[in-house]
């Protein structure tokens, strides 16, 4: 029976890079490995075909011979380079599945320190203008007594005799090899016979660091500021992690922020709403004059351009949106009540009053129509 094209077997293009071939093989091997197919002979043969294709296409000389002469170029019975059916499955699986079983022989023993997060609460004013703040962060830093080695000053760690410094040991079951963390050194690759008294062999100690954080103008809740290398110190000489400062803006008594715009409610008197005029409204930069049009209704929104927040990303500046709320007068004197009653009478009734209170007439006309429709 003729053999299938190796590229077709792995589902890759003829010009595929080696990393793409390994990725395709890993996916197929996970699916068709005998440990997963429970003795299905057809699937076992498919796995052998996949394995054969992988061995040829990841060997530079065999792949060149296969590309030029096809299967004949790698068939040992025809004088080619051949695969011979004796692949070292332990090496292949240690290479392809290293990330699943702890990293294999390519895993670095040095480990990067963990990233940290710090929640920073700020006032709206500080967030809008930007500010330098000092924060205190509890973290792990390299031990200065042993320079992070974990060994007592004057001594050095020795190479682990079990894993020979690899931090991993290999267990074989037939042709299948599994990488496991070395039980002697717990993956460090080193043995510390005389631990440092300050860090007790860990190479790191707890410390609260004081850091200065430059918060740029315009930050908002949810924004993060990254301080590279200010996280936990790495293990065994590994790099430190990063510190992420998470910004949260506290509620403001006057303004509500939405993106780069600010919103506020401005109460005005009944007479000011009716007659119009100028009022003072607050902004983050101080008070400004706002012109109220005559006959302004409650809920109307006035826009003050450029009085919002400058974007931390684009540099564009938002607006301040002032929502007018007409305040009904309270605690009226007898004379004031008389004046309001005179005003009300002066507007008349029925159709005459409608020109002064059009919304009221529209509402009650709608109510009348609603009930008329119900009775018809």
Structure notes:
There is one protein chain. The chain is an alpha+beta fold and 376 residues long. The chain has four domains: 82 residues, Helix Hairpins (Orthogonal Bundle); 134 residues, Chaperone, DNAj Protein, Chain A; 72 residues, Urease metallochaperone UreE, N-terminal domain (HSP40/DNAj peptide-binding domain, Sandwich); 42 residues, no CATH class. The chain is built from eleven helices and 15 strands. Helix 2 packs antiparallel against helix 4. About 8% of the residues have low confidence.
Report the sheet with the most strands, covering strand number, pairing sense and barrel closure. 4 strands, mixed
Number of helical regions: 11
- Averaged pLDDT: 83
- What is the class of the largest domain in the CATH system? Mainly Beta
Strands, total number: 15
Query: Which assembly state applies to the chains in this document?
Result: single chain
Strands of the widest sheet, in order across it, are: 10-11-15-14
The residue fraction in helices comes out at 25-40%
CATH superfamily of the largest domain: Heat shock protein DnaJ, cysteine-rich domain
Query: What's the SSE pattern?
Result: HHHHHHEHEEEEEEEEEEHEEEEHHH
Mind telling me the C-alpha Rg? 38 Å
Class from secondary-structure proportions: alpha+beta
CATH level-two architecture of the largest domain: Ribbon
- % residues in beta strands: 25-35%
**CATH overall fold name of the largest domain:** Chaperone, DNAj Protein, Chain A
**Low-confidence runs (pLDDT<50, min 5 residues)?**
78-108
Binding site for Zn(2+) 2: 160, 163, 182, 185
Family: Belongs to the DnaJ family.
Organism: Bowmanella pacifica
Pfam family, one: DnaJ_CXXCXGXG
């Amino acid at each position: 029976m003729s053999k299938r094209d190796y590229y077709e077997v792995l589902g890759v293009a003829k010009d595929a890079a080696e990393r793409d071939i390994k990725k395709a093989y890993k996916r197929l091997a996970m699916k068709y490995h005998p440990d997963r197919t429970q003795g299905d002979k057809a699937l076992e043969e498919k796995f052998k075909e996949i394995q054969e294709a992988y061995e040829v296409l990841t060997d530079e000389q065999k792949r060149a011979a296969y590309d030029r002469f096809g299967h004949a170029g790698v068939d040992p019975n025809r004088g080619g380079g051949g695969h011979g059916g004796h692949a070292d499955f332990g090496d292949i699986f240690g290479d392809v599945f290293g990330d699943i079983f702890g990293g294999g022989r390519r895993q670095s023993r040095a480990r990067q320190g963990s990233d940290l997060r710090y929640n920073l609460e700020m006032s709206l004013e500080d967030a809008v203008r930007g500010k330098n703040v000092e924060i205190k962060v509890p973290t792990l830093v390299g031990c200065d007594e042993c320079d992070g080695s974990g060994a007592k000053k004057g001594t050095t760690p020795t190479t682990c005799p079990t894993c020979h410094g690899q931090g991993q040991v290999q267990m074989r079951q037939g042709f299948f090899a599994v990488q496991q963390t070395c039980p002697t050194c717990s993956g460090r690759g080193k043995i510390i016979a005389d631990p440092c008294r300050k860090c007790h062999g860990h190479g790191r100690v707890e410390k609260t660091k004081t850091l200065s954080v430059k918060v740029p103008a315009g930050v908002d809740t949810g924004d993060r500021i990254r301080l590279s290398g200010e996280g936990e110190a790495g293990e065994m000489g590994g790099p430190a992690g990063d510190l992420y400062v998470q910004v949260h803006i506290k509620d403001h008594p006057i303004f509500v922020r939405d993106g780069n715009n600010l919103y506020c409610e401005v109460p005005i008197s009944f007479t000011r709403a009716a007659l119009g005029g100028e009022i003072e409204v607050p902004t983050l930069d101080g008070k400004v004059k706002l012109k109220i049009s005559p006959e302004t209704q409650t809920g109307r929104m006035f826009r003050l351009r450029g009085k919002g927040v400058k974007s931390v990303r684009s540099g564009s500046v938002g607006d301040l949106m002032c929502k007018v709320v007409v305040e009904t007068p309270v605690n009226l004197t007898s004379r004031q009540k008389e004046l309001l009653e005179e005003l009300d009478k002066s507007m008349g009734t029925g159709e005459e009053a409608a020109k002064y209170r059009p919304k009221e007439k529209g509402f009650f006309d709608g109510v009348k129509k609603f009930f008329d429709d119900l009775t018809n």
